[in-house]
Amino acid sequence: MRVAAERRTSGHPGVGRVLVVIPTYNEADNVRRIVAGVRDAAPAVDVLVADDNSPDGTGAIADALARSDPHVHVLHRQGKEGLGAAYLAGFAWARERGYDAVVEMDADGSHAPQDLPALLAAARDADVVIGSRWTRGARVLNWPLRRLLLSRCANLYTRLALGMPVTDATGGYRVYRSTALDAIDLDSVRSQGYAFQVELSRLAHRAGVRIVEVPITFVEREHGDSKMSPLIMAEALWRITSWGLRDRRTAMRRGSPDELARWP
Ligand SMILES: Nc1nc2c(ncn2[C@@H]2O[C@H](COP(=O)(O)OP(=O)(O)OP(=O)(O)O)[C@@H](O)[C@H]2O)c(=O)[nH]1
Ligand SMILES: [Mg+2]
């Protein structure tokens, strides 16, 4: 009882102890700026850099940041295993240490630390908060038309396939409260790339937890290279299609009109 009471009164107001997990692979030009930005924007949160043994020395830079700030931690992983695996390791790290919420955030500057307080404020009344690029009030800066179209089409396809009322199911700027992580079977998650964000959205939606979206300002990365690849896109397309077929088949078998009404 005492521990629970202490947790509620420490950390971020109304949310508790928050860990921002930042997965990195070759983000040496970005990691200092993003960690500093998060610490400025939300001084009560802790940061975990989950680095996959980046050849460019990102892990060593993160270690130096951790030495000078007790709120910053580093999880060194053996090698590049994908975004999904890095996040799952970060979530496990947070749960072992009793955090009340984890935030997912890219290192490349696309996710503005200035938006973090609004995401955390929304988390007071939600289990999952998704920072959305495609809801009213959101902005996407410096993205070429090709990327805008890809993201819009991917989200439209996801919404139609999975029947989920989420405008940005592929976005990776999110808050998961421990209530949501407890409700989701994380051991079943296999996705690596973009599909990871969609898979967690789907599992949260199926678990019936409260999901809200908050508009964000998304900015194209200025330094370093994107890790997006045709393989990552193919994984997303394949997984979303097979989840969609499976969910629809299950709903038809149950014959529940409410459930079937999710799909157009
Ligand atoms: N630990 C770890 N981090 C990764 C891996 N792949 C990508 N990341 C990180 O995940 C975040 C998102 O990756 P990006 O390359 O920006 O991919 P993206 O945002 O989907 O693609 P862009 O929109 O083109 O930037 C960044 O912080 C990357 O460094 C990986 O295999 N392991
Ligand atoms: Mg990016």
Characterization of this structure:
The chain is of the alpha/beta class. It has a single domain (2-260), classed as Alpha-Beta Complex (Spore Coat Polysaccharide Biosynthesis Protein SpsA, Chain A), CATH 3.90.550. Helix content is 45%, strand content 16%. The chain contains ten helices and nine strands. The protein has helices at residues 2-9, 31-41, 58-68, 83-96, 116-122, 145-162, 178-183, 194-207, 230-254, 257-260, and strands spanning 18-24, 46-51, 72-76, 101-104, 128-132, 139-141, 174-177, 211-215, 217-219. The protein has a seven-stranded mixed beta sheet, with helices on both faces. Strands 6-9 form a two-stranded parallel ribbon. Strand 1, helix 2 (31-41) and strand 2 (46-51) form a beta-alpha-beta unit. Helix 8 (194-207) runs parallel beside helix 9. The longest helix has 25 residues, at 230-254. The radius of gyration is 18 Å and the shape is globular. Bound molecules: guanosine-5'-triphosphate and magnesium ion. Guanosine-5'-triphosphate is lined by residues 23-25, 27, 50-52, 80-83, 86, 106-108, 110, 221, 226-228.
The tally of helices reads 10
Q: What's the CATH H-level homologous superfamily?
A: Spore Coat Polysaccharide Biosynthesis Protein SpsA, Chain A
Bound molecules: guanosine-5'-triphosphate, magnesium ion
Overall mean confidence score, pLDDT: 93
Which percent range describes the beta-strand content?
15-25%
Uncertain segments are 1-8
Oligomer: single chain
CATH fold assignment: Spore Coat Polysaccharide Biosynthesis Protein SpsA, Chain A
